Amino acid sequence: NAGVMQNPRHLVRRRGQEARLRCSPVKGHSHVYWYRQLPEEGLKFMVYLQKENIIDESGMPKERFSAEFPKEGPSILRIQQVVRGDSAAYFCASSSGTGGSPGSNQPQHFGDGTRLSIL
Amino acid sequence: KQEVTQIPAALSVPEGENLVLNCSFTDSAIYNLQWFRQDPGKGLTSLLLIQSSQREQTSGRLNASLDKSSGRSTLYIAASQPGDSATYLCAVRPYNTDKLIFGTGTRLQVFP
User: Cys-Cys link to A47, which of A57, A70, A93, B4 (CB 3.0-4.6 A)?
Assistant: First the structure.
């Protein structure tokens, strides 16, 4: 079984451009999470989505950032008008949800990340 | 607010030593705790997941314990090898959320 696939692995953008990061979850997983790892910092939660729905976006900046997980296709994290401070590694994770709080008892499986560099 | 701390921040040991990595969290209201390994420039590999009702989990040379009431977990690595060199992260899933709260990691180097 293929794991979580993220692309591109590396992305370079100039200030003011848009960045689109893609994530294909493990086959059969309907829960997707995005995390950001700034240089020399730990991973921070950004957003949690189930198919076509945003469940928790408490970690996502209010402006310029958006995420979607359409019925068909990968999850997309979109950053508009990028700034130098957006340079980071962005990780996607997926899990399957069973009982109780959706996804609560299942491990999250991570992709290899997209390393975004802003010139 | 849940905070996760890992000690030590870095560790360098000779091959063959048994190691203990520590993780502490401030709020015991968690569903589970997960240990990960991260190699430089790579993603996270899940090592062990301990449910809140469990005390420990084992996989090969790895053993993780959980004491929820005291807010602590330890990752025990037996007979360390150079291939174990990586950053080890612990993360908790608080009640009523589906996100993981990560610690800052322990950077481990095992030299031959």
Answer: A57
